Amino acid sequence: MWRDAVLVAGKDLRLEVRSRVATNQLAPFALLVLVLFAFALDPDRGILERATAGLYWIAVLFCAVLAVERSFSVESGDGVRDALRLSGIDPAGFFLGKVAALAALLLALEVLLLGGVVLFYDRELAGWPLLVATTLAATAAIAGAGTLYGVLAAGLRVRETLLPLLLLPVLAPVLIGATRAYEAAFAGTSSEGWPWTGLITVFAVVYLAVGSLAFGTLMEES
What we know:
By secondary structure, the chain is mainly alpha-helical. It has one domain (2-221). It is built from eight helices and no strands. The chain has helices at 2-19, 21-41, 45-73, 80-86, 91-121, 128-154, 159-187, 194-221. Helix 2 (21-41) packs antiparallel against helix 3. The longest helix has 31 residues, at 91-121. The mean pLDDT is 82.
């Protein structure tokens, strides 16, 4: 399973490096979202400062939906999905590989967005242990849920509109928890944010466990 996961993750990451979709499309889009929020709320800097954590995770969510759709669209043509079914790759390994590649892409975008928060919102980043732990837990949860629902919507013609409808309600608790944890870190009260990080970690473990068990069935039916 782990060998298959490494192979799938390597394949997806090589595709991203060669296509440069993250560099040429997702990264500019993510920064543009932050800039638009900054212009919209700039007249009242107090509101912008209080909303920084929420705006950050909204931008991450937008990027995640696009990244999930991209992750499965590259396998939708030329019988690639059928070839993967016949390749003998362990479904759990395939799922974990897709999750790892998606998580790596999201982490790179999140680091870029944190730089955008410092630059455009003039925020000083504090509470680094909480920020790092929350980012890792939330990224794992987003990547796990995104991969699970991505394969569910992959075989449908309306996947571009169906995927956000399926994914957003599932990720709402994760985004709320991540926003609360980031707010606590920015305010210098990290002790108030750790329970939220623990909650996010629980969701991440659940999504990864369910995905590992159900991915094979969903891939066969998609």
